[in-house]
Write a structure and sequence with these properties.
By secondary structure, the protein is α/β, with parallel strands linked by helices. It is built from nine helices and five strands, in the order αααααβαβαβαββα. The protein folds into two domains: 95 residues, Methionine synthase domain (Methyltransferase, Methionine Synthase (B12-binding Domains), Chain A, domain 1), CATH 1.10.1240.10; 115 residues, 3-Layer(aba) Sandwich (Rossmann fold). The mean pLDDT is 87. The termini are far apart. It has a five-stranded parallel β-sheet with strand order 2-1-3-4-5. α8 links the parallel β3 and β4.
Length: 225
Amino acid sequence: MSVAEIKTLVEGLNEDSANLEAQEHKLIKATVELDEQLFEKVISNQNLVHGFKHTMLKLVYPFLEKIGMMWLTGSITPCQEHFITNLIRQKLIVAVDGQVSVANEKTKKVVVFAPEGDYHELGLLFAQYLLKQANHSVMYLGANTPIKGLKEVVELFEPDYVFCKMTSTMRGKKGEKYVEQMVETFSGVDVCIGGVSAGVIQDLLTPNFIVVSNMNGFLTAINNV
């Protein structure tokens, strides 16, 4: 391929990828039609032109919000939702594995998890990616983490920071009990709680806890580690 042909190809990718709405429509089409090749084409083009972080923030997260609404309204089936979220999960895992953290004087030790009964993992994996990209040492416990073993994790790993992602599962007495146990377990550690249900437990928290309810708050918390 000549230099001129390569330039034309790149310009075409730039023009196409700039139209985020069109890319979202393609991802929705890939979801409905279970078209993995179309998904791969859209994500690969976006990563090539804009990078992985930009692709996640500007395309994938807005797309996931729409997919969530489509699932709630019955516009897509659970299988279609599982299909596309697992493709995104695979991309996140590959991106995390590609990050090689180099310890320096600013490196912090961070624990990342979601509570017992919460199986949503995409936000956790993205947090892990961003933290490793910033050269932090991450202990990734993943979703559905029982409170019982966390005290031992604190004693052995001695984290500087904890990131916990909560969703609608943490409501009522069960959620309150888990949060009360978190407050006791992480009494000497800075903790960030994010997710749609984080606000409902605000009154139970001590000053070393912060709650974020949107992506900007999430990014600010990551940058402040």
